[in-house]
Each structure stands twice: as C-alpha cells, then as structure tokens.
Amino acid sequence: MKSVILGLIVLSFYGYGSDSDLQRCINKASSDVELRECLSTEYEYQDFLLNKYYKELQKQQSSAEDKKVLRDAQRAWIKYRDANCEFEALPMKNGSGWTTLHLDCMVTMTKQRAKELKESVTTVYRD
Predict the structure, then answer these.
(1) For residue 103, which of 38, 39, 54, 124 is within the disulfide window of CB 3.0 to 4.6 Å?
(2) C-alpha distances out from residue 31 to 73, 90, 99, 120, Å
(3) What average pLDDT does the segment 108-119 reach?
(4) What are the start-end ranges of the H helices in 13-63?
C-alpha cells in the first residue's frame, strides 16, 4: 500500500526536478508519517506563496470592484480545490492513505494556483 501511494506522489512531482527539497524529503521518507510531514511542509510553503501573490495582486487592482472580483474568484477556487482534493482522495476514503493522497492533491493544486497568481502579478495591466 505504501509503495502505491509513494509511487503516486513521486509521479505527481515528476518534472519538478529530483533536486527539489520535496523530492529529497519524499525519497528519504521511511514511513507514511514522514511522507505526510514532507507534504505538509510543502503545502505550507505553497500556501504561503499563494497568499503572497494574492496580496500583491490585490494591491494592483485599481478599484474596489476589481478587488471584489479577485476575492470572489479566489474564494471560489479554494472551494473547488478543497472539494476536488476530497474527491481525488476518495479511493482511500477509509484507509490510512487518505491523508497522503489528500495532501498530495492540495500541494499540486496550490502550487499551480500560486504560479497562476504570480504570473498575473507580473502582467502589466493596461486600460
């Protein structure tokens, strides 16, 4: 069971580089607890980046309406991410691997959203 979950996680991070901190942590993990610690640490980091770029993007908005649109979009995305990760972890619903699959999904989706927000921050807005 652990090897299946570990395989899923390694596959989900393929392409990020074997030198990444997360990949090294996963490679060193010798238990599900250590694996979850790796994912939790990475999730916290990605969530930090997501919030950082969100705040920067909020500052770039020129009107209260634009800020509200961004806020509403972000809230909708968070609801989607949470529901989607619940769904992705369903195969392990009553098993010990649920937390690992759920965290893996949260890391992957949060990292992608942080990247999207970062790219929006660096985009030059013109009227």
Answers:
(1) 39
(2) 37, 21, 13, 38
(3) 95
(4) 21-28, 32-60
